[in-house]
Amino acid sequence: MKRRLALIAMFLSITACQSDNPYVASSAPLPPAPPQAANTLDMSAYPAAPRDYARYRNWAWLNGHLPAGTAWMDSAQVADAVSNGLDQRGLRPSRNGQPADVYVSAAVRQETRLRQVRDDYHDPYYGGGVGYGRYNGYRQGYGGYASVPIVRTYQEKVMVVQISMFDASTGQPVWSASADTVGSNDEASRSKALRQAVQQALTAYPPR
């Protein structure tokens, strides 16, 4: 009897496995691409080509305006410092109606910044152990030489120079950099600081 029941159960399980699956796989084709897709090129999907800075040889001021002057720096001084810096980079000013390859703008401003300076003060009586006292004797507890850090915070005025370049054909910005140097109150020192800041900013041109 038990054997018969086992055979019936086995038969029912085999029959269940051979029954039709109620779940049927189905798929639908993708919709066709729009007609304009064949004629549209998405440039954003491709990396930008490296810019050839060697083709920039002649420059002119952006919108034909010299850099703005300040209360402590004349506009002509700023223009002269930037022009000399560009000349050292192989960029010549456009002359006699010659079209410029790149337009240049420059700005100068003064900022007040906080700077910290750390001094290591050597105290001969700071530390542990036995040391020689100042009254011709020895004293217990402190001795040897130790460095005591002293941090000083102070304000200083700096001259900040910002130089930017724009492609003459597209108007797009192609390069920009800034640099700063410590300012001064006398005119000679300010002129020197301006030239130094311009040179520091232009060391990043052309990009490498």
Written account of the structure:
Pfam families: DUF4136. This is Putative lipoprotein. Keywords: Lipoprotein, Signal. Helix content is about 20%, strand content about 30%. The chain is an alpha/beta fold. It has a domain at about 55-110 and about 155-200: Double Stranded RNA Binding Domain. Helix 2 (about 75-90) runs parallel beside helix 3. The protein is flat.
- How many helices does DSSP assign? 3
* CATH classification, class level of one domain: Alpha Beta
User: Which residues form runs of ≥5 with pLDDT under 50?
Assistant: 126-135, 137-143
Q: What does the radius of gyration come to? A: 39 Å
The succession of helices and strands, N to C, reads HEHEEEEEEH
* CATH topology-level name of one domain: Double Stranded RNA Binding Domain
Shape: flat
**Main β-sheet: number of strands, strand sense, barrel status?**
5 strands, mixed
Helicity range: 10-25%
Distance between the termini: 91 Å
The residue-averaged pLDDT reads 78
Q: Please give the CATH architecture of one domain.
A: 2-Layer Sandwich
Per-chain topology:
Blueprint: H1 2-17, E1 58-61, H2 75-88, E2 92-93, E3 102-123, E4 130-132, E5 138-140, E6 146-167, E7 173-182, H3 187-202
Parallel strand pairs: 1-2, 1-3
Antiparallel strand pairs: 3-6, 4-5, 6-7
Helix pairs in contact: 2-3
Protein name: Putative lipoprotein
Keywords: Lipoprotein, Signal
Domain DUF4136: 51-207
